[in-house]
Amino acid sequence: MSMEIKVDLSKSGLTMEEIRQKKLEIDTALERLWSGKETFTGWVKLPLQQDKNEMERILNVSDIIRQQCELFIVIGIGGSYLGAKAAIDALGKAPDAPEVKFAGINLSATYHARLLEEMAAKEVCLCVISKSGTTVETTAAFNIFKEALIKKYGKAEAVKRIYAITDAENGALREETEREGYTSFVIPSDIGGRYSVLTPVGLLPIAVAGADIRSLMEGAEVMAASPDWDFDGPDYAAARYLLLQKGKSVEAIQHYEPDLKYFVEWIKQLFGESEGKEGTGLFPAGLELTADLHSMGQFLQQGSPIFFETVLNIEQSPVDLTVPEGPLKGKTMTQLNRAAMKGVIEAHSSAGTPVIRIDIPKLDAFYYGQLIYFFETTCAVTAMLMGVNPFDQPGVEAYKKEMKKEI
Ligand code: PA5
Predict the structure, then answer these.
(1) Do residues 188 and 324 both lie within one domain?
(2) Among 175, 184, 106, which Cα is nearest to 141's?
(3) Which of 204, 219, 314, 333 has the most CB atoms at less than 10 Å from its CB?
(4) pLDDT per position as a tens digit, 358-399
């Protein structure tokens, strides 16, 4: 087992020569990212310039929250939600940590009414996260849950149970935070929502759930300390770009561990919002295997050839189970899962579908930190190869504006 995240392109249908030909463009993209001159690239050097006091404060506040509540409701959407949700699912919750649930992730009255019911019987804290401070879903849910919190505890105690993460100066949420005196953290102005998981946006909820955020940052630091990209990220970025040029417009990102479901959702947002503009971009789709083989397997084998596959392969499982009886007697689940992955890669690549495999030694905080940085950098570089700005989202702004007109 390798101790690094590795990209296997042997079944991608691409030659190493094709990949090498992209080197110059990749180096230019990397230089732009590291130059400090591009807007919204604050995340690039973030793991190398960690603010130790801020880390200390996040850990102290997370300790307080863990003592205050059994249910920690995080209110935010998009980049103010997916990073924390994905990491908590992937790394698991410590037994003594509060349950972390999310609100403001849709506009469903049913979803939020159920969560409100749950809140009645438990000790609760709220954490509202919004960079702009004006997002409709977040604003609606925060005000509903805040009212319930005040009813439950009275105003003074409720204020001690509200945590806000937002811009340092701008927006209605910052204004309310200062007025009411909520404990708060800042989303750096040079880091956009979908690149913000390694700021308090992700780190506070992840720490409350009990994952080791120091180790997470260490993982990201190891990746960031390799600015020449002597890891395999550039090959993946080049391969994604080349496959798009060859007419593959969908990237079917697959995992064999259900704990990675939201990690794939996080990648979908990162890739989709960063690349999908000006009539280009890969459409990121997520598949959960082996479950989806029994629904999408047919399409993947013989359907429209518009996609390539990216397989997330966790090499080491922390537990295993052995089948005690029947025709599979003596086989372990891990063996079977591995056999499924190998068989599927073989069957699909033989049928002409390009397959990229990303080998991840294991799923712990350190490697998870590496993965975050790996995907953020890959995403930014591929978007630059595509000739689009990885850090804006004019389409999101457009629908938000139209939606507000309807309200
Ligand atoms: O990546 C993005 O910029 C978006 O997905 C935002 O994170 C999302 O729309 C939420 O915005 P805000 O944090 O301003 O509430």
Answers:
(1) no
(2) 106
(3) 204
(4) 999 999 999 999 999 999 999 999 999 999 999 998 888 888
Centre of ligand 1 to C-alpha 80, Å, is 6
Q: Are residues 134 and 230 part of one domain? A: no
Q: Is 146 a catalytic residue?
A: no
Q: Say how many domains are in the chain.
A: 2
Please tell me which residue in 294, 329, 401, 405 is annotated as part of the active site: 294
Verify that 378 and 323 share a domain, yes or no.
Answer: yes
Report the CATH number that the domain containing residue 328 is assigned in CATH. Answer: 3.40.50.10490
280 inside domain: yes
Q: Which atom of ligand 1 is nearest to the CA of 194?
A: 1
The tens digit of pLDDT for each residue in 333-364 reads 999 999 999 999 999 999 999 999 999 999 99
Residues with CB under 6 Å of ligand 1 are: 77-80, 130-132, 135, 138, 192-194, 273, 393, 396
Same domain for 227 and 87, yes or no, is no
Q: Which domain holds residue 178?
A: 43-211
Catalytic residue check, 400? yes
CA of 130 to the centre of ligand 1 (A): 7
- 406 has pLDDT over 50: yes
Ordered strands of the 71-75 beta sheet: 99-103, 71-75, 124-130, 162-166, 183-186
Task: Mark 385-406 as b/e (b = at least 16 C-beta within 10 Å).
Answer: bbebbbbebeeeeeeeeeeeee
Residues 97 and 180 reside in one and the same domain: yes
The per-residue pLDDT of the chain, averaged, comes to 95
The answer to whether residue 273 is catalytic is yes
Is residue 352 included in any domain, yes or no? yes
Residues 172 and 245 in one domain: no
In this structure, the residue with its CA closest to atom 7 of ligand 1 is 79
101-108 average pLDDT score: 98
Indicate the residue among 187, 211, 235 that finishes a domain: 211
| pTM of structure | 0.96
Q: Is 402 inside any structural domain?
A: no
CA of residue 128 relative to chain centroid, distance: 18
Whose alpha carbon is nearest atom 8 of ligand 1? Answer: 78
The tokens describing 256, both together, are: 């064999």
- What's the gap in Å between 83 CA and the centre of ligand 1? 12
Give, as one character, the DSSP assignment of residue 174.
H
**Which stretches of 36-108 are DSSP H helices?**
42-45, 52-68, 82-91
Most ligand 1 atoms within 8 A of CB, residue of 74, 105, 132, 187 to mutate: 132
pLDDT computed for residue 232 by the predictor: 75
DSSP letter at 232 equals S
User: Which pLDDT does position 1 carry in this prediction?
Assistant: 47
Does the residue 403 lie in any domain?
no
